[in-house]
Model the fold of this input.
Amino acid sequence: MTKNLSWRGAIGGALILIAFLYLVPSLSKELPPWWKGIFPRDKIHLGLDLQGGMHLVLEVDAEKAVESSLERIIEELRHDFRKKKIRYLELKRRGAEGIQVTLIREESASDLKDLIDRNYPDFEIKRGPKVENGVAFLLDLSPKARNHIMKMASDQALETIRNRVDQFGVSEPDIRPQENHRILIQLPGIQDPKRAIELIGKTALLEFKLLDEENSLEDALKGNIPPGDEILKQVTVDPQTGIKKEVPYLLKRRTLLTGEYLTDARVQIDSQYNEPYVSIAFDARGAKLFERITGEHIGKRLAIVLDNHVYSAPVIRDKISGGRAQITGNFTMEEARDLAIVLRAGALPAPVKILEERTVGPSLGKDSIQKGLKSMVIGGAAVVLFMVLYYGLSGLVADMALFLNILFIMAGLAFFGATLTLPGIAGIILTIGMAVDANVLIFERIREELRLGKPPRAAIDAGYAKALVTILDANVTTFIAALVLFQFGTGPVRGFAVTLSIGIVASFVTAVFMTRIVFDYFFTVKRQTKLSI
Amino acid sequence: MEFIKPGINIDFIGKRKIALCFSLTLIFLTVILLIWRQGPNYGVDFTGGVLIQVKLAEKESPADIRKALEPIQLQDSIIQEFGERGHAEYLIRVRKTDIELSGLDEKVKKALEDHFGKEADIRRVEMVGPKVGKDLRQKALFAIFYSILFIAIYISGRFEHQWLMSIIMAISLAIVVYVASGFGVSVTWLILLALLVTLGLCWFLRLKYALGAIIALIHDVTITVGAFAITDREISLSIIAAFLTIVGYSLNDTIVVFDRIRENLGRYRRRSFEEIMNSSINETLSRTILTSSTTLVVVIALFILGGGVIHDFAFALLVGIVIGTYSSIFVASPILLVWQGRFSESSKIKKGLVRTGR
Done:
């Protein structure tokens, strides 16, 4: 029995030591260098509600990705039709379902079928509705291909957003995919939520388009937009007065070049006006394209369009080789920097929508921690006092268990890399109240046994044995509730479930195992004969 | 020190009719209140919308704040004072979900600063789109439902060694839920249906301990929801966490009493079921009171000192612990008794025969 006890004592001591090791990183400001190789380094993560920050759930509009993918295929089809001499009346997209082709002659039908079967296996070809002077066919995008496009879009959006956030410089961002093309983003300690949202949510599709200088802008503004043209606006804000000004442009709809060939984008300062601008660089292919475009359109105006807003529309003076260009547009330093970030990180494959946004100011987080700790200390002290008054020295043993319990929960949080949230603190406080329950159950049983006239040693044994079943049953049911909560919960609820689960396990270990060591020590080794309970 | 002297024997079971009336009244009131209010008062987590916590330089009346929000068409939002006395903190809730959510906090800040001419500090913003709100509500309801189901399985298995029965129950329930969801029943009704079926199955399969425990915890959660409705508090995500904690706590309490009943049933074969229950409750009374008080002490500390954000959470725990303690004594055990009365007629007669035989 004594030998058994020393083993248990050793295990207990080891548990406490390990718990301390896991807590050191959270408690000390700086770790000595020799610590890092061997010992745990992770601090307890604080939830956004405790340190301030931003929580976002975005939805990738994956349908849009399918649509733009169909648009691209239509362009390819046009090219193929020209090559195969298939003459058509109309080639248009039907929502996100597929494409409708209207051929001029029935004879081309077999050529079309041939082409689709050979080069476009993702489509199924069907007869379309009857049309005058033509034959209509429907090309349906297969569900498999559709899902693939949507999945690619969300994956790529996740990657792009991750890149942007990394470059924005947030210390411990957490970005992860969720079901239904959603993305969860947590940015602790962010100071300017609005700027962060703009940076993350920007589609950042960069396009170069020619101005239509043959047709009149006035006519177009009245509603007479020439076919193949569109009106886009340039928005400028006067830095002195803050007044917004919108300048419309009539542009050719066709995109000559997009941002996909970008290799770099950085902020530079215009020495003449002391204004920041963004300088971009193309890769070899982009540079060649840019050179050709500028060479073919000397004297014309080329608009730089980002997310359907014109940034600038300079006149091409000469063929530009070397693959460099500038985007100017009355930027502040911050705006220019953010624009460079989104251009470097690439465009989102589809627009995103904010489904959920939670921001907690850092001052509120600090308040919450302070108040949580204060109520923990006061509530805990009351319980500690209460136990000693009620159970005497045994109450002190229960208090020791309580203290160890809190230690183990904190260490457990560090060990699992779990996040401590405000409801989590509440969970710990609740565990403090409930942790004594196991000891109360045991002590009440011991008292009963003593009343039956058993000596302390036997009463302790019987008390522990009888209470154990009840404690197990009671804890397992709470544990089940905590696990379900963890499975279904999100954010703060999850944090609460984690602390509750760790708390249940910890309280079982401390109340049943640790206290027993103390009792056995006094009544087996020290051969105490009186029990203060 | 002792609160409860050993050998005490209060007739708890004899007061079960009074307790029944009391519980039924509370539940009835809750149901009426919920019907009248058209369901629980869900917060923006579940309905979608915006919640903005703002700290002003000076105290302002909600009417003034509403007036300040008029220029940005938010004059019909709910304004609530928040936090401790003497702090000019307010919650602004916007129930609309059709407005442009992003950038709303900036607009509110500007509107307040323009109107009052002093700085306004936005301390917390929660914006939830309608889609997410629905998802979150579903998840929360499922969390409550599944925890009850798993707990029922565990209790039946442990207390009556009816693992097979409890598994049959789980499977039948899964079938019912599957079929019902095929008919496009809304989640709230689906869960109510599932709960009813769970109770029915417990009854039919004679899983009496599970039945007692489940009724007790539904009782506790319902009354806590009622307390929320009557004090006009909102049910947010963290309140759901509190409800599940109440589920856990209520069970904890109930199981300690049930354990004792089971133990005593084996020990005193002669005594009537009613007597055994009473003595079991009395024997565990000391523990029940002690644990409830220590838990209450810390929860009260949290309630008073924990600050505004955690206030409702602590309130739920406070109500839940009081009700949970009451229900493990006055609700869960009497259900066992009712059961015994209905189904054990034959065993009683047998016992009677043995007695007269002596």
Strands of chain B lie at 49-55, 78-82, 89-94, 121-128. Chain B has twelve helices and four strands.
